[in-house]
């Protein structure tokens, strides 16, 4: 008799788990059913700002595989089906329609929940999240209907990307954030570079201003926001306030929730108290590669990898998730931003004695056309020179240098070891000494006295 794998959630983690389990087990051996409350599966939420901004032409371009394509591979996807409850004792998921679906293995991949603080007016027409493809379609429709002033709440990845998208569509853009600077996972000196870059693009950036109210007009539509400092008018408001784990279903069922607020799992993505249940993606807790401490980092890269680990284990192949560094890149206009590992605040909280070094260089040989300024900041353990974290801010060609630094941190290299590494050189791509190496040399030179 075949077993049934039931997956709740049809995006990155859920579909990666389903696809990997199917690669390892036949349809005769394992029935796979995916429940997705929306109408799309395997879609790129990260691509929504670029669809809104016009770089991506069509909604379908953001969909990796359709339900029909999964069906052809032996995976049943039921869209428009919301899982309402999990009965762990009975091994059953109950849908919103009251249907009871049994399972032998269960993957909870309910994803993240956009942060929506209790602000009056936040649910008004004209206030948009950026979570699903329908959200992107709604923003595009508002722009097409004649919106001229866009207001973005928040200065993280989505906030910056949506600010750029709206500006590309010809809107006057205002960004309001409660934090002192955009990109709070950067140190203040690097965040200042980002803020200055946004202002240079013509955006109005208002920091240290928590929104107290979304203003609405006589028709009940958002027309601006009010802070303790002042009011700002808008034709549409976009929320970029971050993501938390969506764990209502798991918590109500009695699955253990970790200190990060996400589902507690081991490194095989199993729920610790129910080994037949797995959790992966933005709803699951993980651990930081540098500190070893529990962490919650909502990124599609992690979700896909965690889903694959869960699918491998379900398929009979041992696998373990290796942890996270929080490596991420983004851009606003021509300014590129990358970060990995620990920023100084995180290093301090983790108890490291650390130092920081920042160098300025160019992305190419200075004489080569298109050379852009780039700043590289390293956070290292004082004395040993162990790499703990890195940040990069600069012009085109800057951001992906963070991958070299992430690899070095992942491998446990010191700054001195990185400084001696064999990186490529040609004038169109870098100076003789790549900025990554220059930063590492700055640390190792001082550490050696």
CATH H level, superfamily name of the largest domain: FAD/NAD(P)-binding domain
Strand content: 25-35%
Mean pLDDT: 96
* Largest β sheet strand count, sense and barrel closure: 6 strands, mixed
Shape: globular
Count of the domains:
3
Sheet with most strands: strand arrangement? 3-2-1-7-19-18
What is the percent of helical residues? 25-40%
User: Using DSSP, what is the number of strands?
Assistant: 26
Q: Report the span from N to C terminus.
A: 69 Å
Radius of gyration: 23 Å
By CATH reckoning, the class of the largest domain would read Alpha Beta
Which characteristics define this entry?
FAD/NAD(P)-binding domain; 12 helices; about 450 residues; 5-stranded parallel β-sheet; about 25% helix; alpha/beta; 26 strands; 3 domains; 6-stranded mixed β-sheet
Description:
- By secondary structure, the protein is an alpha/beta fold.
- The chain has three domains: 3-113 and 244-314, FAD/NAD(P)-binding domain (3-Layer(bba) Sandwich), CATH 3.50.50; 127-241, FAD/NAD(P)-binding domain (3-Layer(bba) Sandwich), CATH 3.50.50.60; 328-447, FAD/NAD(P)-binding domain.
- The chain is 26% helix and 27% strand.
- It has twelve helices and 26 strands.
- Strands 3-2-1-7-19-18 form a six-stranded mixed beta sheet. Strands 9-16-10-11-12 form a five-stranded parallel beta sheet.
- The longest helix has 15 residues, at 300-314.
- The radius of gyration is 23 Å and the shape is globular.
- 47% of the residues are buried.
